[in-house]
Amino acid sequence: MARTHSVKHLDNILVRLNKAGKILNLPDWLMETLCSFKLVWQSGLEVKMDDGKLRRFEACRVWHRSPFVDQPHKGGDRWHPNVSVEVMKPHSMEMSWKIWLAGIEMGGAKGGIAVDPETLSLGEQKRLTEASVDERDERNILGPRRDVPAPDVGTNSQIMHWVRQRYAHRHRVREDGPFAGVVTGKPVGYGFDGIEGRTEATGFGVMHVLDRVMSEHWMPYPRISTPRLAVMGFGNVGSHIVQRAAQRQYPVIAVSDKNGGVYASGGLDLQQLFAYYKENRTFSDFKGGDRITNDELLVLQDIDVLFPAALEHVLTKANAARVGAKIIGEGANSPTTFEADKIFEDRGIIVIPDICANAGGVIVSFFEWARNMNVRDERVPCGEKDAVLSAMEAIMSKSTAEMCANAEKYKTSLRNAALVTALGRVAPLFVAKHTA
Ligand code: NAD
Q: Is 214 domain-assigned?
């Protein structure tokens, strides 16, 4: 199952990479470089369980190729039973694309541990985190200038805090800090060195990019001033998309989580919805709308914008022809297969690709790292949450405008244009590395 999924994911990635490479006329050697990896690490970790017995876990980390020799790699650390090198490879490539599109001088990475964290006690989670830090540090593949992990599926700010503590513990005898830059997504507050705004960043960023794209002059639709929205997923990304929609007074017609959703053709009462969900963690008996399945939500006809903000590969050749939205904003990573992309292109549906739409999280993580490392960079804000989010929006406005300009220039989809923009930034750096 994991293998089939990773092969499909890699297929998606390679189809997209080849299209962008052709547009930019990249040489064969560079295309091969862009399909390769700087580091593929895997190792067993032995950890003492609460019952005193040792248990072995499989950990891995993959770095995609990067032209930035003195800058770290960056990407999530995932704890999930299907974590493996093959699954993480395409994820690390997509991280690079997202980072480069945002103009951040780092390389992509992804990794994690094959485990269901819910089966571990807090103490076991801490010891597993420490074993993973020790193993990576011994191989010199972790550090503020080497590789900077972040939370992903199954990990959180507590685990990131343990990473930072363990790394500092191992290094402070020999060197001076700043050790906080070894990881991002740390808790916020005195001494924790996290950054305010990280929680909201991805969802708010998705809405910001939607607004920028809707104001583009080449949009094939008349300006939609109050778009009707549907959001699949009500976790970190989905709930913040809805929160921003409430602030903008855009009607939200349907929302869902893994147990299904709720629909109201006149728009949901979002205040009631948030209050209900906070208390019940489900939409099951919410009285402000009708029950709807996730499959039905994806093909709603009376919406302008659909946000898949939960899972990968939910928009496929099986449902793409029935999607009713005019615009799709990819809150999740890889929610659309390349077969569905083709159908959307033929039908004139605009897909705002994940590497542009959901880059807010990694941009704010970059701010966190830069602050921790005392990096002077005019893009990095000094202030609190509002300053962080508007600095993030400034970067996203720029990359969205460049993506849209390339879509117009090359008469291609936003998906191709985003990748063309990202690769166009780094291709000269890869070439310059080999120029005598
Ligand atoms: P989350 O765990 O906070 O929320 C996931 C949501 O998806 C939950 O509401 C869950 O109920 C729902 N869900 C799970 N299985 C489902 C199913 N079968 N059908 C419908 N809904 C289902 O996760 P998140 O952080 O919101 O991330 C969502 C997506 O966005 C993932 O693809 C993630 O990789 C991507 N992403 C997240 C961030 C970030 O900053 N959190 C950044 C970039 C991309």
A: yes
What are the distances in angstroms from CA 97 to CA 20, 217, 277, 425? 11, 26, 34, 10
Per-residue pLDDT of 149-173, as tens digits, reads 999 989 999 999 999 999 999 998 7
pTM attached to this predicted model: 0.96
pLDDT by residue (tens digit) across 90-100? 999 999 999 99
The Å distance, Cα 140 to ligand 1 centre, comes to 32
What residue type is 95 in one-letter code? M
Residue ending a domain, among 315, 332, 357, is 357
Query: Is any atom of ligand 1 closer than 6 Å to the C-beta of 332?
Result: yes
Residues 96 and 245 in one domain: no
Residue with the two structure tokens 């959001």: 231
Q: Which two tokens stand for residue 389?
A: 């989010």
Q: Are residues 175 and 151 in the same domain?
A: yes
Residue 310 CA: which ligand 1 atom is closest? 7
In-domain check, residue 364: no
How do residues 268-279 score in pLDDT, each as one tens digit? Answer: 999 999 999 999
The pair of structure tokens assigned to 381 is: 């804000």
Neighbours of 293 (CB within 10 A): 12
Q: Which among 89, 110, 126, 326 is annotated as catalytic? A: 110
Residue 351: CA count within 13 A, CB half-sphere: 29
Helices 85-101, 2-24: inter-axial angle, 10-degree rounding: 30
Whether 110 is catalytic: yes
DSSP string of 22-64, one letter each residue: HHHT--HHHHHHHT-EEEEEEEEEEEE-TTS-EEEEEEEEEEE
Among 194, 221, 243, give the residue marking a domain's end.
194
Together in a domain, 348 and 207: yes
Same-domain check for residues 259 and 353: yes
Query: Rounded distance, CA 404 to CA 392, Å?
Result: 18
Q: Measure the CA–CA gap between 256 and 253, rounded to whole angstroms.
A: 11
Are residues 255 and 181 part of one domain?
no
pLDDT tens for residues 13-59?
A: 998 999 999 999 999 999 999 999 999 999 999 999 999 999 999 99
> Which residue is closest in CA terms to ligand 1's atom 19?
258
- Total number of domains constituting the chain: 2
Q: Which residues span the domain enclosing 275? A: 200-357
List, in order, residues 6 or more apart from 369 with CB less than 8 Å away.
Answer: 72, 74, 144, 148, 181, 184, 375
Among the listed residues 34, 23, 19, 146, the one whose alpha carbon sits nearest the alpha carbon of residue 429 = 34
| Residue whose CB lies within 8 A of the most ligand 1 atoms, among 83, 204, 208, 236, for a mutation test | 236
